[in-house]
Amino acid sequence: MARIQIAGGRPLDGTVEVSGAKNAVLPILMASLLTDQPCGLSGVPHLKDVTTTMELLGQMGVEISLGDCFRVEMCARELAGDTAPYELVKTMRASILVLGPLLARQGVAKVSLPGGCAIGARPVDLHLKGLKAMGADIHVDAGYIVARAERLKGARVVLDTATVTGTENIMMAATLADGTTVIDNAAQEPEVVDLAECLITMGADISGHGTNTITITGRQRLDGYDYKVLPDRIEAGTFLVAAAMTGGRVRTTNARPDTLDAVLGKLEEAGAEISIGEDWIELDMGGRRPKAVDVTTAPYPGFPTDMQAQFTALNAIAEGTGVVRETVFENRFMHVQELQRLGADIRLQGNAVIIRGVEKLTGAPLMATDLRASACLVLAGLVAEGMTIVDRVYHIDRGYENIEEKLRQLGADIRRLTR
Ligand code: EPZ
């Protein structure tokens, strides 16, 4: 199993290009199921979750291939299947995103229930509630969601929580429904907006995306798409936190500053100097130690839960005490015990951690547990004295393209060990 080894203590310095956003690529690839026309998506990062999605769509009969660098070509001319199998869904919960498109396209879909994951129960009840409101007959049989609908009907769906993939599933299904669907308390994440923009290029009639009320009027059919995905705000944020923690200076290119307001505000509070352009963000820490910041995660435009672990690591070496509160997932602090192994002074209290910054961390062997926790451990390794080895880095490969190459480019002493 691959591991990442880091010799800490070097300030990062340089420029790094941000890859396409994983959490926009996945639903947009699934949207190819909504049409029998060719689709092409550019700016796709080479990630495990992307190859898993391509495998899933291929199993359904979608002709799919990797075009030139970072481009995926697809055509769901004839669907040869209606099932998202457990073997794939258990490795990638986002497989649930085939449910809406398959149901809308062919009237039947069987998707393995994703089951829980390391960061929480992560039910999909709101996805099912929305599709039922649109007339789908849905039941669970032997661990599979079985959904059927002659033709979905437009409906008003009020989401109890602003679920990101729930909003995406219902929005995709609604593009081919008979009538108008209104999603209230919809997720406003930039990835939801990017999916909506892509669907609109296919001929979908969507408005309100980016607000908490999205209106979709169904069409008889949709065209294909030729689209470029937006940059990954979480990858960009992760590199900027790495620069802040190491006292360095990093410019992230192919970035979207407008999708990172909450994160950039917290980095400035931590004492970083931030400058931005249309498609770049630069953080200069000037050799200073960051100041501790308080963070509470929330649905967009609030502070993103996917940046919580990274800021927990920043607070671990910051000046002062910071409180990090997690309100989106119920168990997203697995990185805390690992940070304590490096000497971090962190106390867990309910859904919050109180972190008293220490002058230095000491390198040690660590175990990654989930995607963003593993990124946090790599960041901590960049500042810990001595050697840190992060095990189970398959977690990190799900969401970060060549992270060790990008960090090495910025001056880190980091390499991948394969045994
Ligand atoms: C998406 O997950 C992202 N994944 C996650 O990114 C991200 O952390 C999360 O949104 C929150 O921003 C993708 O987009 C592929 P939710 P999702 O449904 O859609 C509860 C990463 O690191 N809920 O918005 O699964 C749920 O339990 C990953 O890239 C229900 O109760 O998250 C959670 O507490 C991790 N019922 C809250 O809503 C439902 O039917 C938010 O979950 C659906 C969700």
Concise overview:
The chain has 419 residues and is an alpha/beta fold. The chain is 31% helix and 25% strand. Bound molecules: ligand EPZ.
Can you give a write-up of this model?
The chain has 419 residues and is α/β, with parallel strands linked by helices. Helix content is 31%, strand content 25%. The chain has 14 helices and 24 strands. The strands form 6 sheets. The protein has a 4-stranded mixed sheet with strand order 22-23-1-24, with helices on one face. Strands 2-15-17-16 form a 4-stranded mixed sheet. It is elongated, with a radius of gyration of 21 Å. The model has no long low-confidence stretch (mean pLDDT 95). It binds ligand EPZ. The site of ligand EPZ has 24 residues, from helix 1, helix 5, helix 6 and helix 12.
SSE layout and pairing:
Blueprint: E1 3-7, E2 13-17, H1 22-30, E3 38-42, H2 48-59, E4 63-66, E5 72-75, E6 83-84, H3 86-89, H4 99-106, E7 108-112, H5 125-133, E8 137-141, E9 144-148, E10 156-158, H6 164-174, E11 180-184, H7 190-201, E12 205-207, E13 213-217, E14 226-228, H8 233-246, E15 249-253, H9 261-269, E16 273-276, E17 280-284, E18 295-296, H10 308-316, E19 321-325, H11 334-341, E20 345-349, E21 352-356, E22 365-367, H12 371-383, E23 387-391, H13 394-397, H14 403-409, E24 413-417
Parallel strand pairs: 2-15, 3-14, 6-7, 10-11, 18-19, 22-23
Antiparallel strand pairs: 1-23, 1-24, 3-5, 4-5, 7-9, 8-9, 11-13, 12-13, 15-17, 16-17, 19-21, 20-21
Helix pairs in contact: 1-2, 1-7, 4-6, 5-6, 6-7, 8-10, 8-12, 10-12, 11-12
